[in-house]
Amino acid sequence: MTQSGQADSPAGRGTHKATAEVLARRIFDGTYGQGETLALPELTAELDVSQTVVREALKVLDAKGLVDASQKGDGVVRRREDWNLLDSDVLRWKLAAGASSDFFADVLELRRSIEPAAAGLAAERRTDDDLAALDAALDAMAAADDDPVLLVRADASFHTAMLLASNNRFYAQLRRVIVPVLVRRVREAHAGGGEVEHPHAVHAAVVEAVRHRDVDGAYMAMLELLDKSALDHP
């Protein structure tokens, strides 16, 4: 097993959750490679935590598809294909470790498959409360002017509200995947200092279609929004 020093040791924080996060971070940054054994005695000594804490941490990572935890307490790093990227913790660890352009491309494909359909359903099923949430997100976006922090916050609120307005329980749950990636991508775009058109108009077009219960219009407006976003945040 690769030794990583004490810089990210969870000692003193005292929980298996902190230890799981340290180990996950090492898996995602490549410190531990696919098929590598995470040996209980070595981890206990290196991280300065109890064997019970390490065992419980490995069980957490096993449940999230990152490792295979054995009866004796060791773990083996699983293939990338087995990692549960739909889990909010796994996604957060992945984004923190750095995501490649092909990762963001995969998420865009997911969004193009889900969000236009969600917008179409929202046009058909939305309640007055759903519409109020969408309008509130639009108002926040307009008020944000060019403040990147407020724009990101309003953008996240808009896409959350739209997925919830679909009134499909599975689409609603996908906000836990879509929104964190959206936030990271838009923040990076603003940090890069490039010129990005204010997003209010293209988002407002989707809401207007939803307001008027225009199913096809909402679908196409959301698709246009996503394609424009992909150009603004390559």
UniProtKB/TrEMBL annotation:
Single GO molecular function: DNA-binding transcription factor activity
Superkingdom field: Bacteria
Keywords: DNA-binding, Transcription, Transcription regulation
Matches recorded under Pfam families: FCD, GntR
InterPro entries listed in its UniProt record: GntR_C, TF_FadR/GntR_C, Tscrpt_reg_HTH_GntR, WH-like_DNA-bd_sf, WH_DNA-bd_sf
Domain HTH gntR-type stretches: 13-81
PROSITE patterns listed in its UniProt record: HTH_GNTR
SMART domains the UniProt entry points to: FCD, HTH_GNTR
Record-given protein name: FadR family transcriptional regulator
